[in-house]
Give the backbone structure.
Amino acid sequence: MRKTGRWPGGLVPFGRSAVKGNAGFTLELDPEYGPTLIEMIRRFIEKPSFSAVADWLNEQGVPTAQDIARIRAAAGESTTRLADPKPRGARWTPTTVQAVLVSRSLLGEYVRASGAVARNDDGTPVMRSEPVLNEEEWAKLSDAVASVKYPRSRRALRRRQWA
């Protein structure tokens, strides 16, 4: 299923929707939340701040991917299995914004739960959906992310200062 670009199910990435076709489900840019995803990316590139983007999303009342799944499940519009299909009103945090903006799923690639990109036998990435970003846009976003990410530990920071 994955190698043919079909969606195997589960939580749909923010800004995309699972669409049933003749060969099964695929992911497409969501007509309702896709423009918000594009605006999220644009705002972050313009002013790299996970917190500022999270604040903007919360001010706009944009639900998280999990709450979108709950809303759609409660309305019978989703096959995602949830223990409790009622939206929780979860708020965006800098961490949830970062998770969306660093995912290679924005390039249409199938990303495993571990964060690794699934690969075809020839080494190319398994494509799961139409890309949200092209390579040039991904590079700009990645540069913006790199400009605000901190080293994982103080030891790593000290090593960089003395190098």
